[in-house]
Amino acid sequence: MRDRQHIAHPTYLRYIDKLREYYAASGYPMPYKWVHFTDVPFTPLPKPLSECRVGLVTTAFPMSVAGAERSPKEPYAMPTDPAPDRLYTQDLFWDKDATHTDDVNSFVPLAAMSEFVAEGRVGSLAPRFYGVPTDYSARRTEQRDAPAITELALEDAVDVMLLTPL
Amino acid sequence: MCHQTVSLTARHLEAAGIPTVVIGSARDIVEECGVPRFVFQDFPLGNPIGKPWDHAMQRATTGMALDLLERAFAPRTTVQTPFRWGDDAWRENFMRADDSNRAELARAGEERRRAQAEATTRGIKRGG
After folding, report:
1. pLDDT digits (tens, 9 = 90+) for A93-128
2. Strands A128-131 and A76-79
3. Neighbouring-strand partners of residue A161
4. In a 3-state reduction of DSSP, which class is residue B32?
5. Which of residues 88-117 of A touch B (CB under 8 A)?
6. In chain A, where are the structural domains located?
7. Considering only CB atoms, which chain A residues are within 8 Å of B45?
8. Where are the domains positioned within chain B?
9. What would the DSSP string read from start to end of A54-94?
10. What pTM, to 2 d.p., does this model score?
11. How many Cα atoms sit within 13 Å of A131 on the Cβ side?
12. Complex ipTM, two decimals?
């Protein structure tokens, strides 16, 4: 029991509190309203993973968006083979002081998943991975982007999806 | 914000009959939104799968997500990886807003609003 500690707050960082306080201090008194649901959908695994095609979803984008005139991002699909060396993350919200995103596999598990496929733990990796644009508007995500990702997944006959936000 | 976008996307996929698992580091945002399966990596935002170039850790995290796909029997199932970032300073430093920088944040916010207002009057479209 050497691991035992005494705490007055949860140990994990509470981003909803953190962002509200940060923006209030920056002169934005109206807090962002996060989405909360009571009900959560659930679909059991339809068949053994060793027979499933796995898809990957990221919030990073192809390097080609770097430096481009800022335009509304659209959901995209990109080949998993060859895997990209880099993806563009600079415009996303992550801890740029504590870490970096030079290793794509630290935020999209392309290499690890390829190994699990080679070992037979997973049936196959979808021929494309998918990108969903981070959006302040939950409505745009729900009405435009999430349906587009689902459409891409169905096109590629994806059985299960791993999603990895930055 | 990425975590909310992805959680909403996971919910949509799941409702369409595709089982999902989210691997992420903003536990409160994901759990408040509500997703079927979640692997929590208690790291600074940016490397949910594992530390950069640490393939063994990335593989282990991905393996936990696969285990969760096989074993979760109800929605809102969260598991946490056993990994520690090491230095915990990021917890204090990230988006710090306390007496040490309150005046500076207020000034920077004011400056940002002034720049945005100017850009708007010049007709430059504001980025999202």
Report:
1. 999 999 999 999 999 999 999 999 999 999 999 999
2. antiparallel
3. A55, B20
4. helix
5. 89, 92-103, 105-109, 111-113, 115-116
6. 49-164
7. 93-95, 166
8. 3-86, 97-128
9. EEEEES-B-GGGTTSPP-----EEEESSSPPS--B-TTS-S
10. 0.93
11. 21
12. 0.95
